Amino acid sequence: MPFDDETEKLAKTLALKNALEHGGKAALDAVISKFIGSRPDKRSEIKLLIPEIRTVVQSINAMPSLDQKALLAQLAPGELETKKQTVGSTSSLPPLQEAVVGSVVTRFPPEPNGYPHIGHAKAAIIDEEYARIYKGKLILRFDDTNPLKEKLEYYDAILEGLKWLGVKPDIIKNTSDDILKIHELGTRLVEIGGAYVCTCTQDKIRDMRAKGIECECRLDHSVALDRIRKMFDGSYEQNQAIIRFKGDMKDENTAMRDPALFRIIEGQHPLLGKKIRVWPTYDFAAPIEDSLDGVTHAMRTKEYELRNALYFAILDRLGMRKPIMIEFSRLEFEGLPVSKRKIRPLIDDGVISAWDDPRLPTLSGFRRRGFVPEAIRKFVLSLGITLAETKPPFESLEAYNRKIIDPKCIRLFFVRDPVEVCILGAEPLEVTLKNHPTDASLGQRRVKVLDRVYISAEDAALLKKGDEVRLIELYNVRIKEIELNNNGKGPLIIAQIGSNEIRQSMPKIQWIAKNDIVDFKVMIPKQLYIGEEYNTNSLEIANGGAESFAAALTPDTHVQFVRFGFCRIDGKNTAIFTHR
Ligand code: ATP
Ligand code: MG
Fold first, then answer.
1. Do 227 and 263 touch, CB atoms closer than 8 A?
2. How confident is the prediction for the chain on average, in pLDDT?
């Protein structure tokens, strides 16, 4: 019999969990794959086990879900609680493989070579969420092993971005803190014949790698031992020698064709200055650090897929503990690339003046644009950790943001390109305007209206003589005359005060009393790139007027300009358009 007590219990537990996650019906395939995941030693018996697992799944699927829960509680106490935590309302993350509550360690390892962006937010939030779900730890590790690219400014920007996002690491450290340990492990790898020092030219290395041929540096171990000393004692110049992993020069996975593990870089490291010259590549530093740091679940984006074999091979040769690797897709929006290759030139050339420009996908850019961190978190978690490389619609992030800011942000009038309306028969009056349609705690404002108001050029363009329109929260007016050029002062609309009856069919438009208008500017960020080209019209400016009330608002306030959109106050009489 292939089933024993233990495996039978495992099959039942897995089937119960799967059933409870899927409306009471477990899927046979899923249960089999989980089973093999937990008991790889049973892989060879799987043919015999499948009928047994099928029987278990059928019997579990025939149970009412209350009984399923009771049985699961009996077989695996605690499993139901974990389930509640993992499939909670804010999180669509699947359970972590082999995760033990209380011992999960995840890490977010940004290189301090630029400002954090929306893709980093995804990685950091997922890392943190898993650490939280399993009551484990999140490490923020600055992967600072290239002095030519890294700057203190970027460490700070990353810290600030994470703080804004609400991501709170339990431990903050730098890869460079461990540089001597990393040197030691690199040296050991050479000593045990797992790596060698190569002094070939870059061109030769590239060529041999393409052809799948080993170079002579790889062959003689005593040469390697001599060179590894020289590597660290300063005998080599930059580009004269690198340490390479002894992989397989014929491997179909070119990442295994003796990749570089260390190179000499002459440069001022932001923390260590010029003290260190031999720097590990990402390929070496990442597995070593993950292993030393006690990371149990290492997550990274899918483009590193081919490097996984190398990651594990390095740890294998050094006999070091291996984390579980989990991959997810890169996050980026159409027209809003996160790659530094696409953003840095715009900053360097002065096309965009700062990293917090609202057109950029940086966290500070999103912040200035009016996105709130809770929306980013909800959005990221709604994506889950799929591998699909599709760009999610930007509207989806907007929808999360709108849902959060809409109940608490005040309504005001803004008119773009104002057109004056003279209202015949209007008596001076004072109206009370609610700051929010349903939440009275947001207050109200009183506005004096004489006989002149402004409306937006866009609304004015649609009006014809005889039309009746509603000035929102004021009264109706009937258009009598449209003077396109009021003695060179631009268009003027003459209207007659109308009834107060609001009809479904009549246009309802925002307005600003002439005695209350202040100049106001709204910056409207558009797609940064169209295809491969920078969009020269990526920042539209809407000039117009707002109620004087708006001039008193402090930066960071969210407002909804009625019929225009949600905006964030950015500075004196200036706002940034967030979304409709
Ligand atoms: P770049 O250099 O283009 O900014 P990177 O991947 O090299 O990208 P790192 O700072 O090294 O940036 O990344 C830190 C972590 O964030 C890594 O685990 C990486 O996988 C993840 N990450 C980076 N960009 C994205 C993205 N667009 N979507 C999801 N995760 C990302
Ligand atoms: Mg990087």
1. no
2. 94
Interval 449-478: pLDDT, tens: 999 999 999 999 999 999 999 999 999 999
**Ordered strands of the 195-198 beta sheet:** 195-198, 242-245, 260-264, 278-280
Residues paired with residue 117 on neighbouring β-strands, in sequence order: 362
Ligand 2 midpoint to CA 257 (Å): 21
Structure tokens at 239: 């580009």
Q: What's the average model confidence in pLDDT over 405-429?
A: 97
Burial-class residue 282 by CB neighbours within 10 Å (0-12, 13-18, 19+): middle
Mutating to test ligand 1, I would choose from 301, 311, 389 the residue with most ligand atoms within 8 A of its C-beta, which is: 301
Question: How is 251-300 classified by DSSP, letter by letter?
Answer: -SSGGGSS-EEEEE--S-BTTTBTS--EEE-HHHHHHHHHHHTT-SEEEE
Which residue's C-alpha comes closest to atom 31 of ligand 1? Answer: 119
Helices and strands, counts by H and E, the chain? 18, 27
pTM score = 0.84
Best mutation site among 107, 120, 336 for ligand 1, i.e. most ligand atoms within 8 A of its Cβ?
120
> Beta strand pairing status for 508-509 and 444-449?
unpaired
pLDDT class for 74, splitting at 50, 70, 90?
confident
Residue that the structure tokens 């014929």 belong to? 250
Tokens of 323: 């984390």
- Work out the average pLDDT over 377-383: 95
β-strands 492-497, 418-424: how paired?
parallel
Q: Which of 2-6, 137-141, 279-283 has the lowest mean pLDDT?
A: 2-6
CA distance 480 to 463: 10
Cβ–Cβ < 8 Å for 62, 7: no
Answer for the pair 312, 287: CB distance below 8 angstroms, yes or no: yes
Ligand 1 center to 524 CA (angstroms): 27
Residues in the chain: 580
pLDDT of 2 over the 80 cut: no
What are the pLDDT digits (tens) for 498-555? Answer: 988 999 999 999 999 999 999 999 999 999 999 999 999 999 999 999 999 999 999 9
Strand partners, 412: 561
Q: How far is 267 from 148, CA to CA, in rounded Å?
A: 6
Closest-approaching ligand to the CA atom of 300: 1
Q: Name the closest ligand to CA 329.
A: 1
* CA-atom Rg of the chain in angstroms: 32
Neighbours of ion ligand 2 (CB under 5 A): 111
Report pLDDT for 513.
Answer: 98
Name the amino acid, one letter, at 195: A
444-449 and 492-497 strand pairing: unpaired
Distance of alpha carbon 466 from alpha carbon 478, whole angstroms: 6
How far, in Å, from the CA of 574 to the mean position of ligand 1?
33
Three-class HEC string of 448-508:
EECCEEEEEHHHHCCCCCCCEEEECCCCEEEEEEEECCCCCCCCEEEEEECCCCCCCCCCE
111 Cα: distance to centroid of ligand 2 (angstroms): 5
